[in-house]
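quick one before i forget lol
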Amino acid sequence: MSNPDSPVVFEVNDGVATITLNRPEQMNTINGELGSALIESLREVRNRDDIRVAVITGNGRAFCAGADLRSRADGPAAASGVAGLFRTDDAPGFHEFDAKKPIIGAVNGYALGGGFEIALSCDLLIASEAATFGLPEITLGFFPLAGAPVKLPRGISRTMANDMLFTGERIDAKKAYEYGIVSRVVPADELLPTAQAMAAKIASYAPLAVRSMLELVKRQGNLPEGEAMRLASTMRWAIGQTSDAKEGPRAFAEKRTPVFKGE
């Protein structure tokens, strides 16, 4: 476990990493330290074999309320910590960082601006009934910088996405569910247990199959359907050669829980 006073708290339990944005007094707004710590946490998720799934959530009333605008107002964009979410010469930004493992976003409160974009970069997204989503950048003289104008119209209806992007208005968790932004809405006290239960379930499956399907889901989007199907068939054949792909049916036939080893 990382330092509980650090801007991002990192914990691992039974194959699941829980990443908690931890500037509650500042609504978990993004400064340089939080941005760097978040990327470092995701790098650890990618590099550690004992981690199979990660959950990202926030401490306090916010998931993440975006960039630290007080810092931004006093200097260049880099001072706000936003630069930490973007590509540099030696590292990708958050919105293009590939952890190679499923990331579940558990939105506990305000997810605004860059915080909403962090949520959009997760592979699965659930919310508490207290969650609020919004992209207020257009009201402040600029527009979202970490992927929302691209990802949101591809993930939900263009008209709904444009409504959020151009008006800067917020929506609640119920509306986010109706739009298809989140897959589940749960009471606040059930959010993290629900996310961690989802993560534990996925972590119990064959890790190579999970990672391969994640790769397919991410890469097929821009392919014609025929090419996407050929890619899927190739990846499915490769996974079929693994020991885990044989262990699953064997365990089913023997009426026992499979033991997947990532082999």
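fyi Residues 75-81, 86-91 have pLDDT under 50 and may be disordered.
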